Fold these 4 entries.
Entry 1:
Amino acid sequence: MADQHVSQWWKFNKSNFGYKSAPDFLPDRAISGGEQYLENNWAAYLQFVNFCRKYAQILTRETKNIWRARDVEMAIFSSEQPQNKGHTLNPLIGNKFESNNQNKKISPNLKRGDFAGPCPICGHPLKIRASSVTGELYSGCTNYPACNYKGHRSH
């Protein structure tokens, strides 16, 4: 599904993920334009779907968890919500993205607010959080309090 949040993210981030030449949704950052935008928005949607499928495959390979295109779209949608503004999704280059589980520390390339893969308990997106006591980074489930998964922590 592509809504105005997703179309806004697509416009400002697609080139970071290798889709610089893909069309934007029209009119600017919306997809509910009239018939004159139908062909353009369909082309933008197909490129966005291709992006979601590609990154789902990469995430599945890198995290050893099964990802679907809709999981990638949900991560984008979540990152565009007002309470999450300023948090980014990291482009996946080489081993920059690490699977997060109880046995692994957080990758030094990730920072607070970044998306960190799917929750191994419920499958919702994990985000990098910081301990209020030590400042240590850990992955926490966005489905909290229904799911209270917390990745590797030293305390």
Entry 2:
Amino acid sequence: MTKLTTITTALLLGVTTTVLAADYSKSGIMYDHALHAEMGMECVECHEGAWESNAGTDLLLPEKASCANCHDVESMDNCGLCHVDVDDPWGYAEKASAVDRFSHVAHVESEMDCASCHGPAEAIVAAPPKVDCRSCHTTAADLQDCHVCHSQGEEYVPDDHIVGWELWHGVEAGHDQQNCSNCHAQVDCQDCHSGDNVERPRSHRLNFAFDHSWEARGNQIECATCHMDPGFCADCHRQYDVLPRNHSRADWLLPTGDGGAHGTEALLEMEGCISCHDTGASDPLCADCHGR
């Protein structure tokens, strides 16, 4: 039995379960990738244009001439093999590609197979979600990599970023940060939310300034999500004359003897001292009292 006879018979007998289960409401053409893959066909046999495509706007779907390599496309009895509505046959649904700069050639030259982006034959995805792209391509800060695939570059705005998006995007971000990270790097959030550009986080209640130290000690990593600069704490504490608890000890600084407990603490953990008392190597704070 020839390949043509096998495929045609299978289609006519209605064993194309993928076709029956698929939604072709937006296209006039139905196609069973799984069945053709079972017959040993390779993607390039129908989508040969992908091996030469450097633009996402290229139509890489097989034309009637490609189908004619195996099927008798001149027979009216075979129209139902591909066309959803035999009485009113029409082709593929037109859709403008947002990734108009996408290059299939670059991915083919990287020795990637079709399934890496489009999935297995039984579950083909025509346009892979961006999260799949990010499995190889790291998100660049300030939308610097948008131009790789989008000619609009930084001007490209997803469909869900409608009017008022800035007011409730925090809810979406809290629900699905992965979706945001497809376009935005973590530093993008910090750049926009720095200073007084946004209301304080929900965790920063009204009395947060008075008891934040407890939370900072318990989870410094969470604090560093926004307060990345190590000097942030020291700058704020200097501004408001907030001293560490051990600095209030009566013997912390003595004018005679060994100078007090601060010397012992400095020997044990000089890094703790430097985190606040770092005035540069040319003008060390210790030298003010201990000489140069």
Entry 3:
Amino acid sequence: MADSRTSPHSGCAGWLVLVADDDEDSRMLVANALRRAGFAVMEAENGKVLLTLFREFAPANPLVVSDVVMPECDGLEATAAVRKGSPRTPILLMTGLGGAALLRSAKDAGADLVLSKPVDLPLLVSSAVSLIEKLVA
């Protein structure tokens, strides 16, 4: 029996998601949930690798899902760089940190949505779908 939280979503087929998180377990959980929902997923261990993948796959207009705190290039820096080069790219950040200042910084960098960690995977998938639906509407 299919789990409704992880079953493929018809609107996800063909969409690429770039997932960045320096915690391998968290990255794999997020990436696998998105794959089960029907997304194509590429993984990055930090913002620097995320930006390299983004430059390569920008024509596909991928969805970006990134942790905030990472070495070499954090999620806020990566978000600002992606947003500068591609204003329409949907960006979802995940963080274990809280507070209004971080939310403001994330929005200022260009994030469309910020989710708290540990991430509720069904919420992550539904949020990804919503961001894509807004993009194509």
Entry 4:
Amino acid sequence: MKLFYCLSPPCVRNRFDRVSLLLGLIFSSAIHFTNGQGLETAAGARAAAIGGAAVTMYDDYAWGNNPAGAATIVSASVNSSFKNRFSLKSMNSMMFQASVPFRRIVAGITLQKYGDQYYSEQKAGLGVASKIANVSLGTQVHLLQIGMDEVPTQWSWIGEFGGIAQLGKYVTWGAHIWNFNLATVNTRQKIELPVVLRTGISYKPIAKVMANLQLTKNISHKPSIAAGVEYRMLELLALRTGVTTQPFSANFGAGVQHRKLKVDYALSAHEWLGLSHQFSVAIVFSKREKANP
């Protein structure tokens, strides 16, 4: 979610500002095309390693991918993730999530931060999810803060909604919409934030293998396709890989789970800008979780 401010006075005051802003927009555009929007990247290294094809996944990071995926959480949990894009400190992002189940409803909070003192995005979200029969539904509301050097801080409310349905013994379908309320940001002119639609399927022929395929459509850009595979070779160890189009990126990763602790790592190779690293840690306050249906 990057805002395209004007490149001439009075939006920027001198030539240096215009050059800096233009460079920032170039990098922002690359991330925008890859992930759909700024902070709404694949939440957690598990999702990043399979190319972001996570709209069908039930796990601890669901509040950042599809809130419906949090509906099967039966124990309180917290998780944190850190991502370094292209070895640029100004593009680092951090995320914290917490989930608490209440009978048939799971509540969650999400905190995210991206950027530096010159351009930053911060987001706080509250969400709920529930499962009815073979269908899970979830929604979340975010308060987004956008800060930019010499530009007043801007605020906006953003809503998202998602669902996941079990279509058979091996197939799961998911759908998600980001910014269904058509939120805007008022700078010197009104800027519409992007609406992003995602849908996908997950095929799990055996317990150790999961294959995901996802279509993402930002209404302002061409659709992007993501595909990924997870192979749980041991009860403790999982290996992952995936690809994303528009633009192309190759992704790899691994995860280790031991009792209450889950640790994941992802490496993404962008066709234009190079490597990104993501590291995630989750703690579940119970030894057991509800199985992925």
